[in-house]
Write a structure and sequence with these properties.
The protein has 804 residues and is an alpha+beta fold. The protein has 21 helices and 30 strands. The strands form seven sheets. Strands 4-7-2-14-11-12-13 form a seven-stranded mixed β-sheet, with helices on both faces. The protein has a six-stranded mixed β-sheet with strand order 5-9-17-16-15-10. Helix 8 links the parallel strand 12 and strand 13. Helix 12 crosses helix 13, helix 12 packs parallel to helix 20 and helix 16 runs parallel beside helix 17.
């Protein structure tokens, strides 16, 4: 992997920790197998849970008989919907909340669809929990599941979201007038007039297909009740422990202080573990009801079919341009398949709406988004959360407009980019918080310039002019994106100086592989003035930080990082002030470096953190309090971002497509990104690389397929194809730095950025390669069979005979 940037990546900026590629401190423990995932936490006397899941996509439940299951060996309890009917149905309240500003300006429709903890009256998707078996181990619980007898009365099934909007179709939720879950529209300028007077108009239907996060660790939760206090402790692979704590407390009728949630080591989340699930509420309930610890972890089939899905959208998009190729208007009608329940409201639909324009200047806009309920597994945010889908539509439309105008795709893009001197740039839309949308910083032309240069466009065009070699066609594609990062409302950091002199940093954002224990420690070390190796980072423990939001929406570094920075600066002031009292000097005469407070003048007194915070005062120097105890030093900061920090990027890909086999080979993949100031370049590069790998998976391999009967056809890894490292090419990576003015550190989120553009850039490259056939790529994944079908269809349409 090659890598260049606008500055020397080896420079540690005068000895500061921030900006250095510090090796991740968490890796040795994890690589040696010493991680503590939920399944590693052995709770004596624990019972294990297994769920009976619906085999039907839509059916009424006529009866559930658990008599035989109750007598099965090792079974402790069997519950149906009737057994938990006194518990409230589940709602992802925080995700479903509409910001007041957004509600006032756009008046969006958001309908609630509470999900019963166990289905009682009917089931709405294959995999919905119907019964719960608790047994001495998972094997016995699975055996007992087979003895539960359920009588179903099948109902008509809806899989196609556009068909679900028809007036005469079946309704999934009888309490709703139709199958619309959310609806919102936005307008800027006068798009109708702009379209009427445009030189060129392209109109297309593009589909973003359904695929899933598929983390290496499936979901898991365990719970136990303290026999002395009665307090409930829950270990979960959640990305949002504070929200889970509050949901458990609400469901069980407890105060939040009675529930302690710990996000253990997590083997990948990617958004799938950022929402609530009924299993996370039932397991704690079982622990309280049985008086024994309870453990549940899903198997891979459950993860693929019953954990949340993502990405499925349909875009009817139109672009209008003048004769010079400048966009004058865009219209897009977006349909989002929500699955059976509205779990996260406007999050994905509105992300798609307010990211559609990307880095381009578009004066007239009309975007209409509808979220639709169908008999498929519910959909929620997945790395990128609505942005990969909308970037696919917009960038594909840009390619089609370039073809219509006879302009090279990269040239068309360059003509329409917002310039750096226009920052902050107001799009005319409203952002997700309900404020006027504004791009705070960025240099989009430079991103594209670097991507074009590294991709060697002229070399690719020269090879195309040389002709096809053995049926292998080469093509190049481009895609650009912006991402509003650092979602609020806040995040927490608490710093304590221990009597030993070690620093404890507790943050509300847990890690699922992002390297928080390293990057957050780097920020704290700089802010306080201590060595990196004296800092212990705790994340995702609701007792360590009673208030927090979580690690979702590219927000951890922006919010938890800046909370850490501010808390560290306050702690530094406290340390110097306390040391000045202890040493009998003025604070402005002291400096703190490498954990030692010393006089600025050579030969003066000094004091270590252990001496300052320890239990005994310095010999011969009275403690200004009671003379016997050390100094308590701690600070807590809740950082509230004033607005979004907008990250951005440009991707370019060169591919070779075999017309005989349909195989797509990536010859060269370029990514140039801007995430503001970088705390740890090595971690940042890993985050971008991981996102691109998942994006390539969606572009070429992964698809969650449903039959018309609502049955998932790709429920195992035999059918659902996840790429390995062998399928991911070396990346040609570059970056620019435009610090965000929205926070003290000048950082922007980058955990999701890599996943946003791959589908669009690879689709454009394949379309370019197959230009001789007249192929238009309107959806993925670009599997060999789909590529061959595109060639056959295009050849038939254009009267070409060159296929095999």
């Amino acid at each position: 992997m090659s890598h260049t940037s606008g500055r020397d990546r080896s420079d540690n900026d005068g000895g500061r920790w921030t900006g250095r590629s510090v090796p991740r401190v968490e890796d040795e423990r994890l690589l040696r197998g010493d991680g503590r995932y939920v399944d590693d936490i052995a709770l004596p006397g624990a019972v294990e849970a297994a769920f009976l899941r619906s085999p039907h996509a839509h059916a009424r439940i006529e009866s559930v008989d658990v008599t035989a299951a109750l007598t099965a060996p090792g079974v402790v309890a069997v519950w149906t919907g009737d057994d938990v009917a006194d518990l409230p149905a589940m709602l992802n309240k925080e995700e479903l909340r509409t910001p007041p500003g957004l509600a006032a300006l756009l008046d969006p429709l958001v309908r609630m669809t509470p999900m019963p903890l166990l289905a009682r009256e009917k089931v709405l998707y294959v995999g919905q929990p119907v019964a719960l078996v608790l047994a001495e181990n998972r094997y016995l619980a699975e055996d007992a599941l087979e003895l539960v007898e359920v009588r179903y009365a099948p109902l008509p099934v809806l899989v196609d979201p556009e068909h679900a909007l028809a007036e005469d179709t079946v309704r999934l939720h009888e309490a709703l007038p139709d199958n619309t879950a959310v609806a919102v529209a936005a307008r800027v300028g006068d798009p109708e007039t702009a379209f009427a007077g445009a030189h060129a108009v392209v109109s297309e239907r593009f589909e973003a297909h359904r695929y899933v996060a598929s983390p290496i660790e499936t979901r898991a939760v365990s719970a136990q009740v303290d026999p002395y206090s009665g307090r409930l402790t829950v270990w979960s692979g959640t990305q949002t422990p504070h929200r889970l704590r509050d949901a458990i407390a609400h469901t069980l009728g407890l105060g939040s202080a009675a529930v302690h949630v710990i996000a253990a080591d997590v083997g990948g989340g990617f958004g799938q573990k950022g929402i609530l699930y009924v299993e996370e509420l039932l397991v704690p309930h079982a622990a309280r009801r049985l008086g024994r610890p309870v453990l549940w972890r899903e198997d891979r089939n459950e993860n693929l079919t019953a954990s949340s899905h993502a990405r499925e959208q349909i875009h009817h998009i139109e672009l209008a341009a003048d004769a010079g190729g400048r966009i004058v208007a865009v219209r897009d009608r977006i349909t989002v398949n929500f699955g059976a329940y509205n779990m996260t409201g406007l999050v994905v639909p509105y992300n798609s709406l307010c990211h559609l324009l990307g880095p381009y200047r578009v004066p007239n806009v009309h975007i209409d988004v509808t979220g639709v309920l169908t008999n498929t597994t519910f959909a929620t945010p997945y790395r990128g959360a609505g942005r990969p889908e909308t970037v696919f539509a917009m960038e594909r439309a840009m390619d089609r407009l370039a073809a219509e105008l006879g302009i090279e795709p990269e040239v068309l893009r360059a003509r329409n980019l917002v310039r750096p001197d226009e920052m902050p740039y107001a799009t005319g839309l409203v952002d997700r918080s309900g404020s006027p949308q504004s791009y705070d910083s960025g240099d989009f032309p430079e991103l594209l310039r670097r991507a074009v240069a590294k991709a060697d466009v002229e070399g690719v065009r020269a090879r195309q002019r040389e002709g096809v070699r053995d049926g292998r066609h080469v093509g190049i594609g481009f895609a650009m994106y912006i991402e509003a990062t650092g979602l609020g409302p806040f995040e927490t950091a608490r710093i304590d100086i221990a009597p030993s002199g070690r620093v404890r940093l507790a943050i509300g954002a847990p890690s699922q592989g992002q390297g928080h224990r390293t990057s957050m420690a780097q920020i704290a070390a700089d802010a306080i003035g201590v060595p990196l190796d004296v800092i212990d980072v705790v994340g995702g423990d609701t007792d360590a930080t009673p208030f927090g939001v979580g690690t979702i929406a590219s927000r951890a570094l922006v919010n938890a990082g800046n909370a850490t920075h501010r808390a560290g600066r306050l702690v530094r002031e406290r340390i110097i002030e306390a040391a000045a009292r202890r040493l009998g000097v003025t604070a402005d005469g002291l400096v703190l470096s490498d954990g030692i407070v010393s006089a600025q003048q050579p030969g003066g007194p000094s004091l270590s953190l252990a001496e300052l915070a320890g239990k005994a005062p310095l010999p011969g120097i009275p403690e200004p309090t009671d003379g016997r105890h050390g100094t308590e030093i701690s600070e807590t900061v809740h950082f509230r971002p004033p607005g979004f920090a907008v990250a951005s990027g440009a991707h370019a890909a060169v591919v070779e497509v075999d017309e005989h086999t349909g195989e797509v080979e990536i010859l060269h993949y370029v990514v140039v990104h801007d995430a503001g100031n970088i705390v740890n370049p090595m971690i940042a590069e890993g985050q971008v690389t991981g996102g691109i790998a998942q994006g390539i998976g969606g572009a070429l391999y992964e698809e969650m397929v449903y039959g018309p009967d609502g049955q998932p056809r790709t429920g195992t890894y035999m059918d659902y194809l996840v790429p390995t490292s062998s399928e991911i090419p070396d990346l040609d990576m570059d970056e620019i730095f435009t610090p965000s003015p929205m926070n003290d550190l000048g950082v922007k989120g980058l955990g999701e950025g890599g996943a946003i553009a791959p589908q669009a850039v690879l689709a454009g490259a394949v379309e370019d390669a197959l230009r001789p056939f007249g192929v238009v790529v309107r959806r993925g994944p670009l599997s060999p069979s789909r590529v061959r079908a595109l060639i056959r269809a295009a050849a038939g349409t254009h009267g070409l005979s060159r296929t095999s």
